[in-house]
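Q: Given only this backbone (149 positions), what sequence would you predict?
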């Protein structure tokens, strides 16, 4: 695996709103949502109950100010799963349908990661490799839909 799959959390601080301590991601994944984001140890708050997505000290970027969905938050926006190659939940579903339940997108992402062609540590809000999210998303499509009575 490439170095995109590891993060350094030595400077991690709790989210100012919920107290969750998330990974340090830096300014790169924040800038698409906040162009004037200062350099620093920005963190991603992965608590799906909290409106904060990124924070640096008391500075925050919340679900109302992002341009795409980030992780499990801002559910009314486009849902990216792979930030490096712009694959969405809808694209993964279409890929499975088109290829008889086998994801060609996942294979392409795995090959790109193996060739160090990703930049997850800069583009993924969590600062981590997206392959686990891709796998989890694909596995979710395989789950039977509960029958409502």
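A: Predicted residues:
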């Amino acid at each position: 695996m490439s170095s995109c799959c590891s993060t350094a959390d030595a400077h991690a601080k709790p989210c100012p709103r919920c107290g969750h301590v998330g990974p340090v991601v830096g300014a790169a994944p924040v800038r698409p949502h906040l162009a004037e984001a200062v350099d620093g140890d920005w963190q991603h708050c992965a608590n799906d109950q909290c409106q904060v997505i990124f924070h640096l000290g008391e500075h925050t970027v919340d679900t109302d100010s992002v341009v795409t969905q980030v992780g499990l938050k801002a559910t009314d926006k486009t849902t990216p799963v792979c930030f490096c190659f712009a694959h969405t939940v809808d694209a993964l579903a279409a890929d499975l349908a088109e290829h008889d339940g086998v994801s060609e997108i996942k294979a392409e992402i795995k090959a790109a990661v193996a060739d160090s062609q990703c930049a997850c540590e800069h583009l993924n809000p969590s600062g981590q490799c997206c392959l686990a999210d891709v796998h989890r998303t694909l596995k979710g499509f395989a789950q039977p839909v509960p029958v409502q009575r």
